[in-house]
Amino acid sequence: MGILDFANPTRFMKLTQLVLPWLVGLCAIAFAVGLYMSFFVAPEDYQQGDTVRIMYIHVPAAWLAMMCYSIMAISSLGTLVWKHPLADVSAKCAAPIGAAFTFISLVTGSLWGKPMWGTYWVWDARLTSVLVLFIMYLGLMALWRTMEDPIKAGKAAAILTLVGALNLPIIKFSVDWWNTLHQPASVMRMDGPTIHPDILLPLAVMAVAFTLLFFVIHLMAMRNEILRRRVRTLRLRAASAARPAGGSATLQPAE
Amino acid sequence: MDLGPHAGFIIASYAICFGVVAGLILWVRLDKARLDSTLKDLESQGLAKTRRTPEKPDRQ
Amino acid sequence: MSSWALSLFQRELRLAVRVGGGALVGVLFFLAVVTVIPFGVGPDLNLLARIGPAILWIGALLATLLGLDRLFQADRDDGSLDLILMAGRPLELVVLIKCLAHWMATGLPLVAAAPVLAIFLNLEPTAIGAVTLTLAAGTPALTLIGAIGASLTVTLRRGGLLLAVLVIPLTIPVLIFGVSAADAAVNDPVPFMTPFLILCSLSLISLVVGPFASAAALRFSSD
Amino acid sequence: MDRGDRRVFAGLSFSLESGNALVVTGPNGVGKSSLLRTLAGLVSLSEGSLNLEGGQSERSVAEHTHYFGHQSAVKPALSVKENLAFWRDFTAPAHVSNFDPKEYGAQDILEDLGIGHTSELPAAYLSAGQTRRLAVARLFVSPRPIWLLDEPTSALDANSEAQLIDLMNDHLRRGGMIVTATHTPLSLSPLQSLRLEALSIEDLAPLEEIG
């Protein structure tokens, strides 16, 4: 953490201080509208009945789960290539949020699957690759937790994130191929009805609401992370201010 | 409002989603509160005020 | 008497939970093992439901053993083990408390994660309950038996793999009765209680044998 | 007193009065550390005995000693205070006649050693010298009459070395005992010294059979 690193985060803190309240407000409005529409405006599906309402949280969550990984991958490039001081903060803070949304999409998916398919879980290609994504999120979080030095941890995690970004499409592809060989009888295809505007509009609003929610939490978590690093530097300084006499001499140079 | 035969699943989905999001927000808020208080503690020791301009720290 | 025990217990839990402790990595490993197995045997839900209890038990066994190698080694690496040995506290009890804290930090999350993973393996609700119950009764035995291996390999640089090799044969009875109790809960004619009670008694036996054997091994380790 | 393991020492005998310090010197590898570890009960005697007069009979000699080795036994994940509090609670204190320990609170001894301001910080933030001082603090929070110090002044600067020697002298005045292995001369007041010499081949031969 050099002097240069301090410049950018400080500006970031000021900027987010201004932007965050607006984002929170927008997010709340979007959720109010989206939830109202998904419960009262959107019609029930002629095949799936009211369970289709699960879609309004399931699909945005699944979408965010992937978007979050893309943000982490871009941030990792930022850490390794451009060495931007905020990049690894962004990547680190995105991981728990991504894991949470992946978890939501897995749980809501299986709660949707139970009435529709008769089982909570099938080793369907799409579900399985999302589960692998979930494990990767948790692994990255564990990597960050086990390393003491945030800079080192950030670099290690960036490498893993990028390798994962290359590997995820391969996993997806191979799992598709793996699953078509042993197609279980109980799996129903996810085609459903053709998307009708009455359904599409609430879905779009919910997607916007979820995206705003992601950015709100992400920015808040990033602010926390910057504070955490500030605490770390201060603590290092506090410890190295060995004896009170020696410490004050370095802090107050000219008397 | 009638949610049909599978109301339980729908409500559970929304409840879990709400729970996870609330947990996430709570975690962020608690983390912030904790960090703010440690930061305040450290700053009260007169160690914080060296950003870029090396100004003199306040005397306690 | 109880204050030092409480202090040790708190310390162990704190170390497990804080940065670098990695208490939850065991659960993650468990999740990874259970996820990988359907890729090997194929996504046939009926087959998975049949072998599900066994998969969960093997996953829990591996996760427990891999987490155990640092039980005493971390203390040896920084000199704490010497001081623990000469602190004047009964070493058997010290080992028992360390095992208890270790189980709380790593074994209990495994038990808590088991029902969720059981859903992936298409287990029925009764089977899910049975597996969770057998894991709750059986994982303490795994930790306590594993502690013997951990104290035997404490002086080795890379004791982790050797620990697994030493301990896996000793855990076979636990595995057998754990899986058969879980199976018995689903297949009606076989009674559930018989293997389950044997499993509980195995845990109780290891509660006695584990700390004594482990303490003996630790006393020789400092030589 | 001897220790039969691979090659250490034989025919060693000494006694130490309360309030006295014993400095063990000798070339590298002669077994100074082994001697201290033997006294600490970490290495068992193959022959001979250790006795402590006036000690608590239900405790072994080792349980009357503090061992301060090369490693600091400090956990980086715990705060300085938590580290010290654990050893205070966990180490059983030993009381003997002729020994009147000063009661130190955890924070007091940290202040005395010049690391009081770090007590809330995780020990990971401490420098090597500060970690060492935290390890020294352990000797004071749980009173035991005998201190076994293996190179106690390594990684300490001149200032803290002088401070440690003051504290050691204070311990001696209160009737404690110190056995220390060191290369640097320490100005402890009632001082005995023990010089270990490398064993000749003839001395070693019977020991190899025992071990």
Provide a short characterization of the protein structure.
The complex is a heterotetramer of chains A (255), B (60), C (223) and D (211). Chain A has helices at 3-41, 55-82, 87-117, 125-146, 150-181, 197-240, 244-251.
Order of H and E elements of chain D = EHEHHHEHEEH
Structural class of chain D: alpha/beta
Radius of gyration of chain B: 23 Å
Largest sheet of chain B: none
How would you sum up the global shape of chain B? rod-shaped
Beta-strand fraction estimate of chain D: 5-15%
| Biggest sheet overview of chain D | 5 strands, parallel
Mean pLDDT of chain D: 75
Query: Any low-confidence stretches of chain B, pLDDT <50, length ≥5?
Result: 48-60
Mass-distribution shape of chain D? globular
Q: Specify which chain pair forms the largest interface.
A: A-B, 44 and 40 residues
Tell me the series of helices and strands of chain B, N- to C-terminal. Answer: H
CATH superfamily of chain D: P-loop containing nucleotide triphosphate hydrolases
The tally of beta strands of chain D, per DSSP, is 5
Which class of secondary structure composition applies to the elements of chain B? mainly alpha
Oligomeric status of the shown chains?
heterotetramer
Low-confidence stretches of chain D: 1-7, 201-211
Number of helices of chain D: 6
Number of strands of chain B: 0
Distance between the termini of chain B: 62 Å
Please write out the topology.
The complex is a heterotetramer of chains A (255), B (60), C (223) and D (211).
Chain A: H1 3-41, H2 55-82, H3 87-117, H4 125-146, H5 150-181, H6 197-240, H7 244-251
Helix pairs in contact in A: 1-6, 2-3, 2-5, 2-6, 3-4, 3-5, 3-6, 4-5
Chain B: H1 7-44
Chain C: H1 2-17, H2 25-41, H3 45-68, H4 70-77, H5 80-85, H6 91-120, H7 125-152, H8 159-186, H9 193-221
Helix pairs in contact in C: 1-6, 2-3, 2-6, 3-6, 3-7, 3-8, 6-7, 6-9, 7-8, 7-9, 8-9
